[in-house]
């Protein structure tokens, strides 16, 4: 917006600036008054204040310098608390300076792309000890995977079988902690591991297991791993 040829009275500037402030901060017009303190009353943070100053420049066709050069400008911007009336007074005094030419960097925020949707494998409901005794805990899946995959029937979680392997553990270095040595080989049996986080729906029934069912559940799981 270019410099306006119409000189506005201070009261007119205050009224229009209240409208700009309300729109910028998402407030009702009845909530914004010239005597409002920008920080204390309107919760205006530093980014809000920058945007408000830029909107003020566009609204009145003026340029508000980053560092006021005049004594009056310095006095207004160092006034505490800083009110809408103070900004309006400065805008009133510098009418005719013309709005700054910007390069168009002020654009609408780019919306986030919607996240990809994927199904979950957990099942709802609960299981009791009798059902656990009558059914195998894991159901083998015909999945196109290089490793065997299973579905745990208690909650529907898909698991993958990690193959057995021998690994070297421990540390013989001079600066190793006393509980890190000696370096030795360990053979791990195959075991199952969940391939995705447990959903809230699947997790909630877990505390409803009775202790005997929970113990049998754990024993079956460990025996499978061995």
Q: What characteristics describe this protein?
A:
6 strands; SUMF_sf; 7 helices; CTDL_fold; 2 domains; two-stranded antiparallel sheet; Non-ribosomal Peptide Synthetase Peptidyl Carrier Protein, Chain A; disordered C terminus; ACP-like_sf; 226 residues; alpha+beta; Formylglycine-generating sulfatase enzyme; four-stranded antiparallel beta sheet
Secondary-structure topology with pairs:
Layout lengths: L9 H16 L20 H15 L10 H7 L6 H10 L35 H6 L3 E4 L7 E4 L5 E5 L2 E5 L14 E5 L2 E4 L5 H4 L7 H15 L1
Antiparallel strand pairs: 1-2, 2-3, 3-6, 4-5
Helix pairs in contact: 1-2, 1-4, 3-4
Explained architecture:
The chain has 226 residues and is of the alpha+beta class. The protein folds into two domains: 10-93, Non-ribosomal Peptide Synthetase Peptidyl Carrier Protein, Chain A (Orthogonal Bundle), CATH 1.10.1200; 129-225, no CATH class. Helix content is 32%, strand content 12%. The protein has seven helices and six strands, in the order H-H-H-H-H-E-E-E-E-E-E-H-H. It has helices at residues 10-25, 46-60, 71-77, 84-93, 129-134, 200-203, 211-225; strands at 138-141, 149-152, 158-162, 165-169, 184-188, 191-194. The strands form two sheets. The chain has a four-stranded antiparallel β-sheet, covered by helices on one side. A hairpin with a 7-residue loop joins strand 1 (138-141) and strand 2 (149-152). Helix 1 packs across helix 4 and helix 3 (71-77) runs antiparallel to helix 4. Residues 11-98 form the Carrier domain. InterPro entries: ACP-like_sf, CTDL_fold, PP-bd_ACP, SUMF_sf. Pfam families: PP-binding. This is Formylglycine-generating sulfatase enzyme.
């Amino acid at each position: 917006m270019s410099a306006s040829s119409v000189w506005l009275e201070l009261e007119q500037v205050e009224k229009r600036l209240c409208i700009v402030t309300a729109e910028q901060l998402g407030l009702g017009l009845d909530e914004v008054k010239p005597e409002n303190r920008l920080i204390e009353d309107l919760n205006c943070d530093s980014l809000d204040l920058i945007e408000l100053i830029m909107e003020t420049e566009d609204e009145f066709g003026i340029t508000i310098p980053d560092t006021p050069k005049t004594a009056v400008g310095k006095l207004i911007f160092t006034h505490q608390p800083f009110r809408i009336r103070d900004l309006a007074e400065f805008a009133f005094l510098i009418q005719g300076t013309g709005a700054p030419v910007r390069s168009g960097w002020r654009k609408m925020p780019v919306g986030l792309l919607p996240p990809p949707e994927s199904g979950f494998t957990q099942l709802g409901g609960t299981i009791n000890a009798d059902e656990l005794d009558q059914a195998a805990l894991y159901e083998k899946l015909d999945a196109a995977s290089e490793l065997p995959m299973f579905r745990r029937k208690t909650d529907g979680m898909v698991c993958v079988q990690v193959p057995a392997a021998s690994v070297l553990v421990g540390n013989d270095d001079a600066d190793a902690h006393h509980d890190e040595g000696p370096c030795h080989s360990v053979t791990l049996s195959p075991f199952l591991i969940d391939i995705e986080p447990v959903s809230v729906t699947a997790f909630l029934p877990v505390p409803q297991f009775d202790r005997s069912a929970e113990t049998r559940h754990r024993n079956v799981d460990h025996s499978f791993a061995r």
